[in-house]
Amino acid sequence: MHRKDIALALLLSLVLGAGWVLGKTATDSFPPIFTAALRFCIAGLAIRAVTRWPRAPFRAILIASTCAISLPYSLSYIGLSRLDVSTTVMLVQLEAPLLLILSALWLGEHPSRAAWTGIALTLAGVALVAGPPGAAGQGAAVGLVVLSMMIWAVGQILVRKLGLGGQGSGFALLGAMSLVAAPQLLLASLLLEAPMPAAAAATLLAWAQLGYLGLAMTAFGVGSWYALIVRYPLHRVAPYLLLVPVWSLLGGVLLLGETLSTLTLIGGGLILAGVALATRGV
Q1: Which of 271, 274, 259, 270 has its CA nearest to residue 85?
Q2: Burial of 112: CB neighbours in 10 Å, binned 0-12, 13-18, 19+
């Protein structure tokens, strides 16, 4: 990867990490699926204002949008609303090894041994930081987050195949998929959550958090991610996602007043070491 793209990958990991912290606080004010709906509505409108609709068939965009956005973010935001930030964001790190496995099986890409070793080291760090769910009744929430990552990984393969087919830039694809996903998410929220009372009672700060999720986390962060996975094999880009929990843990301390245990610090160190090894070996 070029140096400017490495810098972009590092920056997007910071933006995404902060987004999980603000996503947690947003779900304290809004129902989780409604939060996802507004996030991608804001992002889709912003991106559509500066890009053209991609050349990909609408059916392909619909399928990719459902797998990359609608289903995984519905499930992960429900899980986030029931778990703490550190547990959720650590579970989300399953996305990187899932992407490596799927890119090898589906796209014929070949991650190096160093990349696989780095992923294994990072997963050990994830296990130390997250651990088993501490409170009763969290098993279902953990399952929702894990399932969301499995579906999300399939969605990323579909997005990469669209990009490799020359059917639109990563940024334009994200805008189109966001606009397709937003009505799906809003309909699901209206049917399952009755979100309007919460929306009417939300504070200006809560709406500002949604603005960050839509513009910074999605339009910039996820848009940069899609641009990178169109230009580079997934196994070269995926390891940078493993930095996201480090930023999220720091954000939890600075913004939410959370404290970090010794195991959390050790696990964070393993995650950083794993990222360094994986990115050096690809």
Answers
A1: 259
A2: middle
- 117, with CB counted inside 10 A (0-12, 13-18, 19+), is middle
What are the tens digits of pLDDT across the range 80-139? Answer: 888 878 778 777 777 767 777 777 777 666 667 777 787 788 778 777 766 655 544 567
Q: Where is mean pLDDT largest: 109-118, 188-197, 236-245, 246-255? A: 188-197
Instruction: Please report where in the chains the tokens 């490495």 appear, as a residue.
Output: 6
C-alpha span between 191 and 230 (Å, rounded): 35
How far is it, in rounded angstroms, from Cα 25 to Cα 269?
A: 26
Give the Cα separation of 278 and 120 in Å (integer): 9
How far the first Cα of the chain sits from its last, in Å, is 9
Instruction: Tell me which DSSP letter residue 243 carries.
Output: G
Residue 252 tokens read as 């939890």
